[in-house]
Design goal:
The complex is a heterodimer of chains A (53) and B (710). By secondary structure, chain A is mostly helical. In chain A, 58% of the residues lie in helices and 0% in strands. In chain B, α2 packs across α13 and α4 packs antiparallel against α5. The model of chain B has no long low-confidence stretch (mean pLDDT 91). Classes of the chains: A mainly alpha (53), B mainly alpha (710).
Chain lengths: 53, 710
């Protein structure tokens, strides 16, 4: 079942890449604030083109 | 800090919206045709490109990659720009992404119905299209990642994380599963054989569900549900846990598609364990989506957008509970190969993907065209008829799946199969199949109503191509020192580094590991299992071309009910020369793994008449007729090349055999033709039917010789 080894290696590479991304996210303070991002996306920084909406 | 003025590209979103709607309608209509063919097989019109075996892959590919695929792009291109406060990095790449994807869809329409297929479910497209998909996917990823690099919002919202995971994982899965050796421009053989091919295919197949139908749509859920409800997501912290837990667990669950097959037991157990664990993050996400509406449930009553989203998320919750349950071996023993699976995927497809897409469209079109939804009443009508459609679809399919499974496994008091004739278990399902087609049809009526409603909405407004916006640029966190090593710059860009590392490692692995490891396989070989003769090989290619695997499995599970019906259960060593494997995933017809074996063997004339018109020998059969196999001459121009390709893949044909292959083929074909002549059937030996008969008669024979030599 040699393909199992490939399968596991590739899955581990993907998992390690995700782990790297996770560590990066923590280190760059992505998750320091776990409230305001959810509210910020609700504000649109643009105006609709039709004022009558 | 200075505000920068820029604009969001809405026209690319509009293009993807139109494509989503168009291919949604087309893909679902093709599905309806397939559903009706199971009730009235004559709807195949005895025409090759309209048979179920070719229409069903067209349906699955169209709804997954054309409908949902364009839906993903529409939602991502809209939300990504706004979440990052940045226009897409390159308009050119956006358009290449759009037109390239549509050309790929067109090439699927031009190949699948005409029998150009790799024979691997949801990965049927042939090798040149596979390469095009890879390139297009990189264009999409590059555009997305570069937009992130140029972003004006430091924080990366959870939806974008889902988009990124989608991009990375789909790329890897697609490349590894599409590893195939071309024989001609539109014919290739999977690099892997038998059980190895099965594992890679279902690793891909499962993750196509996970990373094409789930993660991108979860990203869309985390953007569009809060936007539509004008409420922050219930818990941002939960969304982060949801994301990381989900992606870490999902990639290991693939083997649950191969329970009780010839896959090693430990791999099956691994798949089961991870599948069960998936309940936690899936339900975390589902509850997070639903609870976003806490205190706003009254708005669901008035808003069609929210109604669609609530049902979509509920369906997501149902499928992600059902999926792990179906991964339990004892449940899988009942559900596998039956319509239960079909019900399961359609709760996901019609409910989760379909309804979330509709909610998104009802939200986006009025917003982007600056008008009000033309008719909320029609949108409500769509919602209710769509919901009814899902119910009418799913319940009969659950019923059919469970009922058929019981009929397969029933024994009489004397220990014989209660339903020894497979067809008896199929004809009983006809009312359920009819009801399913009805459910699908009313679901499509709802979609058509939506198309009208959206067109009228767009007509009433004016489309804003460029949406002006302003935001301050990000200040760099770190300014480079003079004279530092060039590599430092790369180290500060973890995203790019991750992607580059992944690409580098994968390519290295691809070219080093696969050929060396897979050609000499360490699967327990069975000495009596021999390569296919050239005629059988050509017959096997016809089996793949006609999409027989859509209705017939070639995998006998180790249950008494199956060994009684079909013979000895399937062993891994029997499939070592099968490029690609043809185990199938559904038994609309009986298993064929031992079709040529002593228990099931039928005369050549039976197969001839059965392919000409199945109802002659099996009254009530819903299998389509294949008259063209009798008219078409077998194409032998590639036979030598095929032998060479198979040898490259490790099949032990002697050196130089390719030169004798056609002569061998003709000798075997003549023998079958004269046997048919003995039964009063006059057919030339160079017809396709001869090759297919040769292949079917070969199935399951080798292992019997093993028993004899002992």
């Amino acid at each position: 079942m040699s393909v199992m080894i490939i399968h596991i290696v590739v899955s581990l590479i993907i998992a390690l890449a995700f782990l790297g991304a996770f560590i990066w996210a923590i280190k760059t303070n992505q998750y320091d604030d776990d409230y305001s991002p959810s509210v910020r996306i609700l504000f649109d920084d643009t105006k609709p083109n039709n004022e009558n909406v | 800090m200075e505000l920068e003025k820029f604009s969001y590209d809405n026209s690319i979103v509009r293009k993807f919206i139109i494509a989503t709607v168009v291919f949604g309608v087309v893909g679902m209509l093709v599905g309806l045709l397939a559903a009706l063919q199971l009730v009235w097989p004559s709807l195949g019109f005895a025409t090759d490109f309209l048979t179920f075996g070719r229409i069903r892959p067209l349906h699955t590919n169209a709804v997954i990659f054309a409908f949902v695929g364009n839906g993903i792009f529409a939602g991502v291109y809209y939300s990504l720009q706004r979440l990052l406060k940045a226009r897409m990095w390159s308009d050119m790449l956006s358009n290449v992404n759009f037109w390239g994807w549509q050309i790929i869809i067109l090439s699927a329409v031009l190949t699948l119905p005409f029998g150009y297929t790799t024979g691997k479910e949801y990965a049927e497209l042939e090798w040149p299209i596979d390469i095009a998909i890879t390139l297009l996917w990189v264009v999409f990823g590059l555009n997305m990642i570069m937009t992130m690099v140029k972003r004006r919002e430091r924080h990366i919202y959870v939806a974008i994380w889902f988009y990124l995971a989608t991009f990375v994982t789909v790329a890897i899965l697609h490349i590894f599963n599409s590893f195939e050796l071309p024989v001609s421009f539109l014919k290739s053989y999977s690099w892997y054989a038998g059980v190895q091919d099965a594992l890679v295919q279902w690793w891909y197949g499962h993750n196509a569900v996970a990373f094409f139908l789930t993660t991108p749509y979860l990203g869309l859920m985390y953007y569009f549900v809060p936007k539509a409800a004008n409420r922050p997501v219930y818990s941002y912290r939960l969304s982060i846990i949801h994301f990381w837990a989900l992606i870490f667990i999902y990639i290991w669950a693939g083997p649950h598609h191969l329970l009780y097959t010839a896959l090693p037991d430990w791999a099956q157990s691994l798949g089961v364990v991870f599948s069960i664990m998936l309940i936690a993050p899936s339900w975390g996400g589902m509850l997070n989506g639903l609870l976003t509406l806490r205190g706003a449930w009254d708005r669901v009553r008035d808003s069609a957008v929210l109604k669609f989203m609530v049902v979509a998320i509920t369906c997501y919750g149902m499928t992600t509970f059902e999926g792990p349950m179906m991964s339990l071996k004892s449940v899988n023993a009942i559900s596998h190969f039956t319509d239960w699976t079909i019900a399961h995927v359609h709760i996901g497809g019609l409910g989760w993907n379909g309804f979330l897409t509709f909610g998104m469209l009802y939200f986006l079109v009025p917003k982007m065209w600056g008008s009000k939804l033309h008719s909320p009443t029609l949108a409500n009508f769509h919602f209710w008829i769509g919901t009814l459609g899902i119910i009418f679809y799913a319940i009969p399919m659950y019923w059919a799946g469970f009922a058929q499974s019981q009929m397969w496994t029933d024994f009489t008091d004397d220990g014989f199969l209660a339903n020894p004739i497979f067809l008896d278990t199929v004809t009983k399902l006809a009312p359920m199949y009819a009801m399913r087609a009805f459910g699908g049809a009313i679901y499509i009526i709802g979609v058509l109503v939506m198309v009208y409603n959206l067109i009228m909405t767009a007509k009433a407004g004016s489309f804003q191509k460029e949406e002006p916006a302003e935001a301050a640029a990000l200040t760099p966190v770190y300014t480079p020192h003079k004279g530092e090593h060039w590599h430092r710059a790369l180290e500060r860009k973890p995203l790019i580094l991750t992607v580059l590392a992944l690409v580098a490692v994968s390519i290295g692995g691809l070219f080093e590991i696969i050929p060396t490891m897979l050609v000499k396989s360490n699967i327990p070989t069975i000495s009596s299992v021999r390569p296919y003769t050239p005629l059988e090989l050509e017959g096997r290619d016809l089996y793949i071309k006609e999409g027989c695997y859509n209705c017939h499995s070639q995998m006998i599970r180790p249950f008494r009910s199956e060994t009684e019906r079909y013979g000895e259960y399937s062993k891994a060593g029997e499939f070592v020369y099968d490029h690609p494997f043809q185990w199938g995933s559904k038994r609309t017809g009986p298993d064929l793994a031992r079709e040529g074996g002593s228990k099931l063997r039928k005369p050549n004339s039976w197969h001839y008449n059965h392919m000409l018109d199945p109802t002659i020998l099996s009254p009530g059969s819903i299998m389509p007729p294949y008259p063209w196999l009798i008219d078409n001459e077998l194409d032998m121009s590639l036979t030598a090349k095929k032998i060479n390709a198979m040898r490259t893949l490790g099949v032990p044909y002697p050196v130089g055999y390719e030169n004798r292959a056609v002569a061998d083929l003709q000798a075997q074909a003549d023998a079958i033709a004269s046997d048919l002549a003995g039964s009063g059937i006059e057919v030339a030996s160079d017809r396709e039917i001869i090759a297919l008969i040769a292949y079917l008669q070969r199935l399951g024979r080798d292992i019997e010789n093993e028993v004899e030599t002992k």
